Amino acid sequence: MKNLPLALLLIISIISCNEKTSDKNIEATKDPNSFAIVIHGGAGGIKPEYFTKAQQEAYTQKLEEALNAGYTVLDNGGISLDAIQAAINIMEDSPLFNAGKGAVYNSDGNQEMDAAIMDGNTLNAGAVAGINHIKNPILAARIVMDSSKHVLLSGKGAEIMAKKYGIEMVDSSYFFTEKRMNQLKKLQGKTTTTLDHTAFLIKNELIDDHKYGTVGAVAIDKNGNIAAGTSTGGMTNKKYGRIGDVPIIGAGTYANNLTCGISATGTGEYFIRTVAAHEVSNLIKFKKFSPDNALNEVLFNQIGPLGGEGGMILIDKHGDVYWDFNSSGMFRGYKKSNGESKIAMFEKMK
Ligand code: ASP
Fold first, then answer.
1. Which of 88, 114, 245, 327 to mutate to test the pocket of ligand 1 (most atoms within 8 A of CB)?
2. pTM for this one?
3. Could you tell me the domains of the chain?
4. Most exposed residue of 238, 287, 303, 343, measured as fewest CB within 10 angstroms of its CB?
């Protein structure tokens, strides 16, 4: 350095100074104490003609209730992990969504649920797969994260652990709903699996399978910590033992304070093959994509061409909320501490 001409030294110091300043500006864009939560209730063939006004109202009310539960936790100074858990619990307890009480059936006529949660501050994560006696699967995912050295527990092992930690267990009959059983009956014996809310024709009969969905939430708390969680019954008529993208960290669920938190919904196999949520995070981190562009790239240029369908919700490190989907609709909503909020099902607007 000693021999470098003075002018060159000056240029080097100006460049490094600029870098520091711009980094600082990026970090400073989240308002101190601001917070936000975004949720989804599944994506798929969600079109206005499939829903009565009363049904639309029921979905809106439940999404609002879930959003408010998570928002209240954040408003009271709670952490993002507790906020997403509160929001997801409400959707799991509702038969409107394909998670917990409203879980869909596999081809054998049983329910097998998956859930995951991730802490963007520590990169800790917990997940459960193939369970059917835990009332709120997201709570079991949290127990795996907080109280074991593992990330993913399946079946009986997950249930034994949840029980040991006092999570509410139920008989599998708790998850019975006639509507779900009817959905399965229309597909059983066929090779088709469907997203819960995908409508399609078999021998000219409209398969009314589009009205419920996987649930997920992402939140950023006052301290800037991001968390993401997802809970699902999977896909109607899936094979016994099938595990989807939801409990695969990086596929359907991911959070990292350096980039964003994401929860996905859609045909899980494609989200696994593209490692969708982590791919979005990496595009933001390494390729400097905006969250909008990163979501668009993964959904439309990676998942779509493979034949996959679905959507993702995202909160970035600045506390900004994004969502996108390549299906006709996605149940979704967000609420921010600056007073902005929205609930939507069909049209693709922020
Ligand atoms: N992604 C879920 C799965 O494949 C389904 C959904 O999002 O509705 O298990």
1. 245
2. 0.87
3. 36-344 (3.60.20.30)
4. 287
